Amino acid sequence: LGIHTGESIVVAPSQTLTNAEYNMLRTTALKVIRHLGVVGECNIQYALNPLSQQYYIIEVNARLSRSSALASKATGYPLAYVAAKLALGHPLPLLKNSVTGSTTACFEPSLDYCVVKIPRWDLRKFSRVSTKIGSSMKSIGEVMAIGRNFEEAFQK
Hints:
three-stranded antiparallel β-sheet, alpha+beta, D-amino Acid Aminotransferase, Chain A, domain 1, single chain, 4 helices, two-stranded antiparallel ribbon
């Protein structure tokens, strides 16, 4: 808690969640977006205590965000395109999957590979700013790598 998303290392799919934890957070996310009436893109960030299964929702972004761009790149799922079509009133089951061209866009991406995103800082540009990461974003970009497993993606 207390670290800006842009300052954090992201690994997908999660390497530490159990199936029960993953399904608990997924179910909660679906309940939240249905309760809020979200149509289109939304991401939810959690803090989870793995010892007690207690979780907190840190942030809900019912819009395209930096996290959305990463998720889209990591999965190959065209979030912005699909969200725009939904905003125009097109039903999800009728939208074509732009990757296959034959199936619909109404599916949940599944990764059989690992993606690692690491922020990039240029602290010379911010000479009077603390070098400690916190709730404000100081990174100027990021690098993403894909591999067959965490080790391969991380080493790239």
